[in-house]
TrEMBL record, chain A:
This is 4Fe-4S dicluster domain-containing protein. It comes from the Bacteria. It holds the Pfam family Fer4_22. SUPFAM superfamilies: alpha-helical ferredoxin. Keywords: Iron, Iron-sulfur, Metal-binding. PROSITE patterns: 4FE4S_FER_1, 4FE4S_FER_2. The keyword Iron-sulfur applies. Residues 231-262, 309-342 form the 4Fe-4S ferredoxin-type domain. InterPro entries: 4Fe4S_Fe-S-bd (IPR017896), 4Fe4S_Fe_S_CS (IPR017900), Helical_ferredxn (IPR009051).
Automatic annotation (TrEMBL), chain B:
Residues 251-280 form the 4Fe-4S ferredoxin-type domain. It comes from the Bacteria. PROSITE patterns: 4FE4S_FER_1, 4FE4S_FER_2. This is 4Fe-4S dicluster domain-containing protein. Keywords: Iron, Iron-sulfur, Metal-binding. Coiled coil: none annotated. InterPro entries: 4Fe4S_Fe-S-bd (IPR017896), 4Fe4S_Fe_S_CS (IPR017900), FrhB_FdhB_C (IPR007525), Helical_ferredxn (IPR009051). It comes from Pseudodesulfovibrio methanolicus.
Amino acid sequence: MLTARYIANDKLMPWLLSLTETRQVLAPVQAGGQTLFAPLDENSRLDLKGLADASAKAALLPRCETLFEFHYSKGEGVPSKTELEVRETLPDQDTFLFGARPCDAKGFTVFDRVYDAGTRRDIYYCTRRDKTLVAALACTEPADTCFCNRVGGGPGDTDGADMLFTPVDGGYVIESVTEKGEAFLAEQPLMEAEERKEEARKVREAVSEAMPGGDPLGGTEGEVLRLFDDKEFWGGVAAKCLSCGACSYLCPTCYCFNMTDEVNGDDGVRVRTWDNCMSFQFTLEGSGHNPRDGKAQRMRNRIGHKFSYYPELHDGNLACVGCGRCIVHCPVSMDVRAIVAQARDRALAKEEHAND
Amino acid sequence: MASSIDDLKSAIKKALPELDMVIAWAAGPDPLSHTPLFITDEADVERIEWDPRCSQNLAGYLPGLRGKKVGIVVKGCDARSLVELLQEKLIDREDVTIFGLHCTGAVDARPVRKALGSTRGLESVAVDGGTARFTVAGEAKTLPLAEALQKKCFTCTGADAEVCDHFIGEHGQPPQVTETPTTTLEELEAMSMEERLHFWEDQMTRCIRCYACRSACPLCVCQDHCAAQSREPHWVDQTDHPREKLMFQAIHALHTAGRCTECGECERACPMGLPIMTLKQALNRSIQDLFDYRAGTDPDQAPPLFEFREEEKNIKEREW
């Protein structure tokens, strides 16, 4: 890290509000008993305790994004001909995303490998990514359901972030991570804090040690894949699943989408909306055939994608950052950690059995 | 409840050889949340938990398991869902073995998690004497019921499973609450129509369209063929507009009008904490006024909107 700055607790909100003059500031705020990332204004109740109920992914991948607008009109001169006018709608708002936890920020690296992949760049995502500064906030109170440490992350990690805020006595030490973060901090009227970097490091270290334990969940690509045809295993795992989409929609790494034209009279929009693999319609083909027509196949895909197919394509990086929201908010309290551990045990037991 | 759990386990052990499975609750991944347990092996009976963390209404699994012999553990509210499923012939009485319990109230994990601060080392949860008691890392903590229980518990019409094959433990009354929180329905009734619309638009802004409300509803049996995701007919569009999301809630509420037993699963499952059971409560009141009917009480009755009468007792159409 290059620059370190310090901001006192009582200066934080005024400083964030000052940033809203030139850009949108997204931060975890209380709304109806929940803590969600929302545009900050003077009435917002900032909540920096623990993890927000939903991830920050909508900052870069909105729940619903207009890809373009269109309008039908009668052709001039030839009334039988319909003309179509299409208008581009690229995102143009500068954003400061404040208070994303290290797991939320790491989730963006999962998106980057898909939406910003060399020549295959998704212009909507990439524009938003370029226009967004990600200010991560190191965790100090990991929950029972937190497991970033088991999927290659940590409560003070900086992957995917431009700067990191670490709570210290009386305020926050802010350290830049990227050049973008460095350039931003250099322009801000904040105190130098070189001498407090060590204090911040110690805070992060203490939290890492307080994380719930457990074996790493990475490196199980082969095991999960070996169970692909194991109907009994996936049927058992998925028995209590309701096949809703809460886990996917709260997940900082789930990036699948649907595209539909929503037309009203002569005007319409093509929208890209979040989709999720737990839904029957996700793989429903035009013919009516559905290759994943049961919840067991859908669960297999969800676990497989996160812990097998994605890491196989992306140098072993998992599509899970261990935020645990899928566990906390699952209506039936499913535990992704337990499923992966069970898959590994079962695959290894099968292998041993085959070798006997 | 501690004494009931041993009786419950022995009753299940006794019945299990005749059944394909028994559905109960076990300890969950978070100390405040228990999780459904599908028992096929006697060894799993020991994993059963029974305390105010056993929130989920397990009856919703039954229509999907039709044709199998299934045992199920139910609280008072869950048993009313069973009655509704029986009335609608979505399950077969002879295939279901019901283990009924008396419920002292089900905790609402979300506010309790916030009120307790940390749930690390949470060992036990109990409701008695109008208080919710928690033991966290050996330390006793209490919360008033108004802060600890799910909203449905304050309008509970019977804490005992009325319809069952084996009643376990003692019969009793719904939780005794001295301070009942104001319901969202009461708040809404004090508002003008315009304010009500603004209230719902504000709430629906938070909806993420995961449809956990629908998937958790024991009476939502269309599931994979839901109007929410249908393109043809195109009832709701896929945009993020609160009115589209409210439209879905209106469809859901109307589909369950006269059927909804207010088990609260829609609201419990909602990760955004939206007060969506209120819509069903409002319709239930109308159903009661119009048809003098409360869902989930009598397996031999039929829901009023399942029947056609030339003239309803309370709807004097010909006199209009």
